[in-house]
User: Fold these one by one.
Assistant:
Number 1:
Amino acid sequence: MSNSTGSAKTKAELAVLERRLRPVYEALDSHNYKKALTEAEKILKKHPNTNAAKECHQHRKVVTLYERAIQIDPSEQNLTQLFMAYSRERMYKEQQKIGLRLFKDFGNAPYYYWSVMSLILQAGENPELGQKMLLPLADKMVKTQIEKSGVAEGAAELEIQLLILEGQEKWKECAEFVDKKEAIALPLAPYNLVEKGMSYYMKGGQYDKVYELASEAVEKMPDNWNLWKLSIESTVNRVEKLIESDKKEDIEEAQSLVKKLSELIEAVQKTVDYKIRSPYIAPFLAQKSFRQMPKKIPGMEDLAPLFGDYVEKMLKYVEHFYKKPVCYADLKMFFTELTEDQKTEFLKGMIVWIEQVSTADDESGDESKVWAIILIERCRRALGENAKRSPEFMRALFQQLIAQIAAKDRGEHAQGVLANFATSHLWEAYRTDNDLEKFYEMILILEYVVANNKTDPLCKLALMRAYADICATGRINALQKNLDIKAIQMDTLGHLTFPVYETSGHFNLAIIQNTQLMYMYDQADKEIQDCIAQAYRNGKFSAVARMTEVSNRMRNSVQKSACEVMNRYLSSLFVLEDIDQITITLWGEEDPIDWKSLHDTRDFNTLPYTETPEYDVLLEDMKQRTFKELIDISELRNTMCRALGAVGRITHENMDPRLARVQLKITVTEFKEHLEYCCREYPTILIPSKLAQSPAPQHLSQWVHSGGPQMILEYLEATIKLVEILDSGEHPDKSLVGTRTEMATKLIKLIDIPPKRTEGEPLPPFWIVEPIIKSSRALQTLATISILLQLIEKVVIKLAQNVPTSVPDVVSKAKGKKEKKAAEETIAKTLSECKAVVFLEHIRAKHVELRYAGNFLHSHFSQLLAVEDKHIPSKVGEGLGNAQYSLQQISPSIEARLERSFYSAFEDMHTTIKSRL
Amino acid sequence: MTTLRPFDPMDLFKFNNVNLDINTETYGFNFYLHYMINYPEYYQVAEHPNGEIMAYVMGKIEGRDNNWHGHVTALSVAHDYRRLGLAAYMMGFLEKTSENRNAYFVDLFVRVSNTVAIELYKKLGYVVYRTILGYYTGERDEDAYDMRKSLSRDPEKLAMIPLNHPVHSRDVD
């Protein structure tokens, strides 16, 4: 990557250059890259030989700038900065060299280890080469240095040695290493160090040793789950090995190991007597692990005599720990181990237990009974019991849960859990039967809790999710603010709100939100890189690799790419005025996005109540589908933007004309292929995932079947032909882009947003949501075509030779029939002389069609807002006794909020129509 | 039933269940990573066997001479994992770490409105050493209590003798 200045410079010249480069370094040091680049541009004008790579990203430019800088001034600071710039760009080979150079030039031992760390990072990227060459080399380098200079850097040297051993998977050596006296200097708490040693023994297959250490430690720390896990896993591994052989003594040895484990559990249980949980969960894990072995232990097919009866043990566990909210999470891990009969037996046992609990005397402030109810109901749901219950029974249960939620003096924690659990039934009815009444009831209950419960965040989160399905952006905004979602959470929880402002036609809000997100990503990248630099400086090498992984994850976050693309798209359509600026924005970065390398950083584990048996499969399926949809819709926007940008680049002065034409063809083909793919993958029958944990819906299917992207594609394909015609010196015919009537027909279909009413039937609840989404997407198409037409116009003006840019305006000036006739003849003559003019006028006339379409769309808005059908279900809370009254009482204010949200969507879109069409 | 392990930066992608709590602040990357780099033994995460983060504690060691002390920067337990004694367990871990580092005392700042936490810290032997005016700013401006507990190096518990006047946050080092 290093660049040569190409000519020998005099000292004076270098001094001048150095002085001029200083502001660049200062700006770089303060991470003000924009300023650094501006300063660099200034220098480049004055010193054209300091040829910074103009086609690269800003950070790449930073690398180049420091590469230049060290040629002029190879100071320690500049070399260090170059090392960090390489680190940012993952240029580990280059940073390895700079590390060594720093060490040689300035003699500081830490720089030597910077270079070694660069080798370790290279090995991480290329494990095969790492094992064969890079790590052995790193090992040799460290040993040589220690032999030469002794251990000078303390923990830093230890850390790097351990990293090399780990990379080489020398687990035995790792374990011995952390066992050494000096290992105490490693940046770990003493206890963490002990566990680390055990994990190395485990990886190295030294199961006897693991068991010995873990079983001894677990007696002192009986609630340490890791120790139980290690004790059980090491036993399972030893047993597995022993029963591979059919020798009697091996089988007996295996049996004795299992027995020993059961005795350990029993012994510890006796000492703790239900004061802690781990020893009572350990038997479940032990049984589960032994059962999962491919071969059963001869003579020990039934493990119950050793570890106890599953159901009996679970019921005991419930009895002792039901007051802890965690009790359900503990047991749930082992529900998959129960047979159908055991499930029935367990639930029967729970009924007997809860009857005893409910007959106990109430104590003020004690919520034990509520937690018992929560536990039994969650277990019932998880074990498939609810599916067997009648709708009437479930309604009655729901009524009881509401009573519990609203009970006087109900603790906020229990209230939140009850509300989420109660509403999970409603959400399921919405998901499976599209039951909008229950969906609205759920909103009312959640709103009730949110208004009365300050500390529960999950009801707010569930509400945000619900409102995302119905474009209620006003309330989403408030809830998001209230939950104080910020920093990394904007990435991991971004899916709750991401497309909702765009689908609701609030384009400015969408841009603001995306801009905030993009700022967060920039900031995150800067902060992580700062910390990596800090870790190098402090010799905290084990942190470097982990932080690099986080940095990679953030850089390749699917949410980040989706935001970046949507912002380019929406800003070009609805904010930017200058057509050249629009072209640049549409085109984006030179380097294409690698869609296949994107990471899913979305956190779907926050919303609870995933008890039902099929939930694991549903969640996994949803994650994969929505991840794919997010990538597909972003790629569609991106290919569209690139194709539009390529049209604009045809007219750019500094573009190579041949390259511009090739890019146009390629990008339009990419857009076409991706659009066709999306049409196939997302048929009209496809509806967005309705799981409570799903992200806000993208509605890709709606978009690709709206006719909008197809219209855009037609104009793009016509543009390719147009350029060919103009390049050949010919003039285009207006038929190339279709007639106004054809356009009008397509636009009418596009803006056909009013809901279809069945004669005599009221519209369904939330009927207005679909027209909002359709309007937003139609408006995006209108704006896209408008920009495309402007770009086409520019192409004609630029490429058509000797063409007047407009038809002479002689008709309006003509007076009398004779003059008018003469004027018309003049126009006809001009037109026949130059078809390009006609073509231009035709293109301009198409803008009128777009305006008509915009006005029609607006008139639809007015009609929709005048429709009297209610937006919310007419029946709320039927069969819920007193709760019905409470729900009906809060409904009007919720309805008013929803209406305000819907109204504001149309209002925003109307403003857009006025300003952009 | 807990696995206490050092914080890993990947935890940031899955700690929402803890951080959505109203009294838990979410910071930028540099905040968490700074603690991980410089005070890894003070930054511990409690993990449930199902893989969820149950709680975390982050702290540091700082000060000079007889002000050399452990500081609890953040301690938060997810809603579903409360009432298990996790907070006390993690505080114990942090105190032990500070003992190992020969500190005189451990201190922490807490919102004056967070009565549940204040009561817990009192139970664990902490006292309100002083009130810090205007310590919390942002959406919910609030004063803080600086609570302290002496370690074995301060047998006379000098660090715990309360100040008789509040101090302003700008005067706190």
Number 2:
Amino acid sequence: MKVNGEQVPLTGPMSLADYLAGRGMDAARVAVERNGEIVPRAAFADTQLDDADVLEVVSFVGGG
Amino acid sequence: MEIMVNGKPVQVAAGTRVSALQVAYSADVVIRNGYQTSADFVLRAGEELTLIRKGELPPREALSHMMAARHSPRVHEAVAGACVGVAGLGGLGSHIAVLLARTGVGRLILADYDVVDPSNLNRQHYGIRHLGMPKTDALAEQLADINPFITVETHTIRVAADNAAALFGECQVVCEAFDDPACKAELVGALLAQDPGPALVAASGMAGYGSANAITTRRRMKRLYVCGDGETEAQEGCGLMAPRVAVCAAHQANMALRLLLGLEEA
């Protein structure tokens, strides 16, 4: 699949929540668009990824 | 022939030079097409001029015209009818609101639940006299002084996923200006889920005193722009400092302005 413009291999069936956790990302600090549609945080665990998916993962750091 | 001076029609003889008009108005400053000029040119029919006498408070109507005169042509008209939201009125949001007010954005919707405390003064657009005031009130007071010709709507409330759409539903653009990364992500997710909904200009990574050149504006999704260096988090040993926070706020305000003018490129 494609994440933030880069091709990444999908190693097996996994949810969006699994993918983020595997990359060490805190799901509470990201906004994710999948195939052009925003994925609500509540749906991260139920969103099964497909190797044709195009993801945009925007993570935020603190400060303002 | 007729020209416009300070928003009012005025008859002048053909061939009149601006210097003659300057004497008649005791004006120190001449603004022509959004540009302050010291040239002595021959007036053209239909020309719009703003003539300002320094040290004098002009009548309200002329003041509005004089303030708008420094915007590039057409910008004032485009932003005067626009509505922009600012979520969080700390280091980012207070500066964003000031910049947008100066730019003449006609309606600002400002939300923050907190009051001004001494730890805010190192980077936020407040002063000693604002300590203890809700940030909404402290900022509205300053904006009324900076540009009394815009509408400022304040909400002293904690912005979250369940009220974001109701608060900012009428905005063309919303600037995310929170401190907490989870709050940032929550607001962005909530507003992008609205379709149609406002464009979002968020911020991530502006702590410390690293190069200001590392702070950029990037379009990350169709309706999401993110300003900042993307990585410098506020943490122990790396505090938030006025210059970089203000640079990031200015990036956000500029992107909001560009979007209001129909420019979608970051």
